[in-house]
DNA sequence: GGATAACCGAGACGGTACGTCAAGTCTTACG
DNA sequence: CGTAAGACTTGACGTACCGTCTCGGTTATCC
């Protein structure tokens, strides 16, 4: 375990961490990931470069943490606004799978379009494509939990006979997450609520005549 | 006109271009896109840096051209091996859509797994996520032609009543290209022939009980 | 009174001070003055950085004190070994100036050659050349007392008629301290006992034919 | 010969070199050697840092070259002013050693007092004390040639019987260069023309009664 | 004998400069 | 004129220390 004597996190400056997150998110939006530099983050955050290097191994790691923090805050806010005590952690289950999926997918589209999320998420996704280590972290911490919600919802639908018994939920969910991701990241087509609806219908009933 | 007196492409050195392509593809495989530098390409190709800057605006542009060149060569070779006079430009049409799609998707999986293609394609895809200009070019020159083949094949199937009339082929094809791309780029799950087959089945017949 | 509430020296840790001296002297010998850092001294001495900054204003001040301490110890030791109660504070006065000077200069050469003294003394001398404040302190605390001994001895010789009456002792002594210092610091030539002897002879009798 | 493929000096930018010399000399005077940084030299010279690192291994090496250049210019100017075709390369030889030495030593004192020379020369001397490699270069390129002039002049005097035959000129000259250097570098006393004269007299005729 | 103020070790912090790398531009000499 | 070579300015990299600033934890008097 030849670690470089890891820093003592109890003495960490909370104010610096917040400032770094804010600076990173602001910069990735303003100049893009490629031109975002650690020096610029440090300068904008009013922080020494070393303070960044002490706690993160790379630019992408900073941005990942900043984005995770942003996501947490955002979902906490959302839940608070909805008057809930706890953070919402599931896809709605009205009993009607099609309706529920369309609802969630429309929300997903909205998020993908929101520049506040788009810029950092896109940057992280891109970096993850090429940097396996980051990709796995991105997957594990952000994507996987979301995907699991679909798995749960699909199982519930299966129990009610709304999804065929032989279907593997883990594969099925990719019928809509895959296309959405592709339109988002590769700009293969416009990202609209209508598209989301169509996707749900095609996925549920197939494209072959019934 | 403030154009920088564009270079005269008739006097361009073919040998240099080839060497640059080879160097770029080799380097992206060896050190990855992020650590691939123009200087290294020039050095490895035995070429002056200016020769690269004269003909391409950026690292990603070089790699895109190199990869396009590689793709052309590869498909030419493939066609030649198959004893054909021309390059294959269509998805097989045996009359059975399911079989044909499975065939093509398995081939796609094989390509995605082949490191010779994976490294540069992945790098370009990643860069395209974040660099809109490059992304559009990547889409237009590489993805779109492939997608169009699916559109054609789906229309043919529609005519034969194997795909419901109300289905939009342009959206339908994303039911499999999307998930495949997601597994490839985001490592959401393993990329296998079985997965490709399952995808085709789900897409064709839906996940709801028939 | 904008004094920073000077620290209370009665509560000062003797053990820390000693450890700092030892560390400073060891380091200047091992890595040289330029590469000796306050952090390294603190680490090697097992001391917090603040403990150094509390008591000294700069790296050179630490080293100066460390060296003064070393000198005191050394001359105390020397005197003890000679069975004296007090520290020797004068140049021997056998009545023969030439002999006495040669004796002292040979001892000086020996000290200049001893690496234990050479490393820190050289570092301090160098720093003093460029840092007037330190230079003056070095001069006042180390050089001047030594030089005064020569003045005293020369006056004694003058009284006995061994040195011409019109000679200014304060200048005369530089006839040998100057050359010795130059050979030591600027490596203008080898530092040997023979050289010391020659110097004394030339200084006493001049270089013109008598 | 594991050199890092030394740069091609024929393509070197003369303008950059000059600007670097000027900047280094100006800075050493303004902020002192310790606070003079390579970055500041580069900035002041309007030059990239790499251009400095390409041609010199260290701050001291830059300053040494700058000072050598300054010295050359200065002595060329001096000779030109005196209406000479060539650079003066000897100590005057009027036949009277005492006069000639006093003349030269007074000029030396003037130079040591001139801040334009003092700042860089002092810095180099200090660095040379602690950095043997630089010290040797300083000695070889600057000091030694000066000292050799004294050797020549002394030999001439010896032939004429003005210096005793048994005297070693190489040692004798240190009787005045040593003290001068010590007063200059260690501030052991004031540097004046009178001091220079006294030194010559003591050195020539000794301090013992004749 | 318990409070309390200082020093102490440790080390995080905002900074500056380091020496290196590569970007993109410019100049030189060759074919 | 395109080219190989490579010096140039610029700017970011990741590291090392600077000197300042908490943070607990010992001492070490002083009530």
TrEMBL record, chains A, B, C, D:
Keywords: DNA-binding, Transcription, Transcription regulation. The keyword Calcium does not apply. It comes from the Bacteria. It holds the Pfam family TetR_C_11. InterPro entries: Homeodomain-like_sf, HTH-type_TetR-like_transc_reg, HTH_TetR, Tet_transcr_reg_TetR-rel_C_sf, TetR_C. Residues 37-56 bind DNA. Gene3D superfamilies: Homeodomain-like, Tetracycline Repressor, domain 2. Residues 14-74 form the HTH tetR-type domain. This is TetR/AcrR family transcriptional regulator. It comes from Streptomyces flavofungini.
């Amino acid at each position: 375990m030849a670690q470089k004597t890891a820093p003592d996190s109890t003495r960490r400056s909370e104010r610096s961490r917040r400032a770094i997150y804010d600076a990173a998110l602001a910069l990735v939006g303003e100049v893009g990931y490629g031109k975002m530099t650690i020096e610029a983050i440090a300068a904008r955050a009013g922080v020494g470069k070393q303070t960044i290097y002490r706690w993160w191994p790379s630019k992408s790691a900073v941005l990942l943490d900043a984005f995770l923090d942003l996501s947490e805050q955002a979902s906490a806010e959302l839940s608070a606004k909805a008057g809930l005590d706890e953070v919402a952690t599931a896809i709605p289950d009205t009993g009607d799978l099609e309706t529920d999926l369309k609802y969630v997918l429309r929300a997903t589209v909205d998020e993908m379009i929101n520049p506040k999320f788009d810029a950092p998420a896109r940057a992280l996704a891109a970096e993850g494509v090429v940097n396996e280590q980051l990709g796995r972290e991105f997957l594990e911490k952000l994507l996987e939990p979301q995907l699991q919600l679909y798995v749960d919802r699909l199982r519930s639908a299966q129990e009610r006979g709304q999804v065929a018994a032989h279907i593997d939920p883990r594969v099925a969910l990719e019928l809509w997450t895959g296309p959405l991701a592709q339109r988002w990241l590769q700009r293969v087509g416009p990202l609209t609520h209508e598209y989301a609806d169509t996707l749900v219908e095609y996925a549920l009933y197939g494209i072959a005549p019934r």
